[in-house]
Amino acid sequence: MTILQNRFQRVYGRIHQAEQACNRNGQVQLLAVSKTKPASMVREAWHLGQKHFGENYLQEALDKMDELNDLSDIQWHFIGPIQSNKTRDISTHFDWVHSVDRLKIAQRLNDQRPQALPPLNICLQVNISGEETKSGISLNELPVLVQSITHLPNLKLRGLMAIPAPETEPDRQREPFRALTHALHTLNDQFSLTMDTLSMGMTDDLESAIQEGSTMVRIGTALFGSRHSVQASTEASTGTQNG
Ligand SMILES: *Cc1c(COP(=O)(O)O)cnc(C)c1O
User: Fold this and answer.
1) How many angstroms separate the alpha carbon of residue 195 from the centre of ligand 1?
2) Residue 212's domain is classified under what CATH number?
3) What local confidence, expressed as pLDDT, does residue 90 receive?
4) What dihedral angle (degrees, nearest 10) is formed by the CA atoms of 159, 12, 229, 240?
5) Beta-bridge mates of residue 197
6) Ligand 1 atom closest to Cα of 221?
7) How far is the CA of 114 from the centre of ligand 1 (A)?
8) How far does the centroid of ligand 1 lie from the alpha carbon of residue 190, in Å?
9) Strand blocks (E) in 50-149
10) Pocket test for ligand 1, best of 218, 231, 241 (most atoms within 8 A of CB)
11) At what angle do helices 142-149 and 170-191 cross, to 10 degrees?
């Protein structure tokens, strides 16, 4: 068994165990976060059956897509902070965007989505822990943004995403996830929507997220290894600074 195979098996083991513990078997999808990792690793993961990949840095992602354009069925998710001048490339090359947090960005993604492609799947990033420095819209402002976005025909509003402040205690990890799940249900009721995605849970808190209703965990480190040194060199070589 290869190292990557072993890591996928362990992550799926964690997901299935967490699902079982709360009777949510088969409800959680794995998004493999491949930022800073080479295209060769994505290819290897694809051969293991992984089809959904998350990227934070636009140029790095476009380079990988180029190198991997022979892989059918691969689905690219943009999960990093979005600058206005990047929306055209994002809406042209990605299948999902998890990090929409303001109307201006949503409008640009909508206007720039190529007509030949299906509507772009969108999650709204919520600043669930109320950290001043973090991206994401506040819970208070969320209903107005949701209402405006439902009128954009080239976007398909799928749900909410959050990156809570790091906590080690499971009880404290679960709180923000519970709040996000509650927000999704409230918005669905309020606006008669059918949003079906809660993008929450990473390597260190996926069990808590699943327990509180996550439908998509975004896992990097546990699948591809730590990325500290690689990240610095990637940022230097592509000139990106986000994430
Ligand atoms: C990097 C990243 C992840 C993956 O985090 P890990 O702790 O390595 O699993 C998930 N979501 C977002 C938005 C990220 O930027």
Assistant:
1) 22
2) 3.20.20.10
3) 98
4) -20
5) 159
6) 8
7) 28
8) 31
9) 52-55, 75-78, 96-100, 120-125
10) 218
11) 50
pLDDT, tens digit (0-9, with 9 covering 90-100), for 42-101: 999 999 999 999 999 999 999 999 999 999 999 999 999 999 999 999 999 999 999 999
Nearest to 73 by CA among 103, 105, 47, 40: 47
Token pair in block for residue 174: 């679960």
- Tell me whether residue 88 is in a domain: yes
Say which amino acid occupies 18.
A
Six-digit token pair at 184? 């999704």
Q: Please give the tally of structural domains in the chain.
A: 1
User: Using a 6 Å CB cutoff, which residues line ligand 1?
Assistant: 33, 35, 56, 79, 163, 202-204, 218-222, 243
Would 235 be classed as within a structural domain? no
The closest-lying atom of ligand 1 relative to the alpha carbon of residue 222 is 9
Residue 164 forms part of a structural domain: yes
At 9-44, the pLDDT tens digits run: 999 999 999 999 999 999 999 999 999 999 999 999
Candidates 7, 31, 76, 79: which one to mutate for ligand 1, based on the most atoms within 8 Å of Cβ?
A: 79
pLDDT of residue 103: 98
Q: Is residue 136 part of a domain?
A: yes
**Span from the CA of 147 to the centroid of ligand 1 (angstroms):** 28
Q: What is the mean pLDDT of residues 216-229?
A: 93
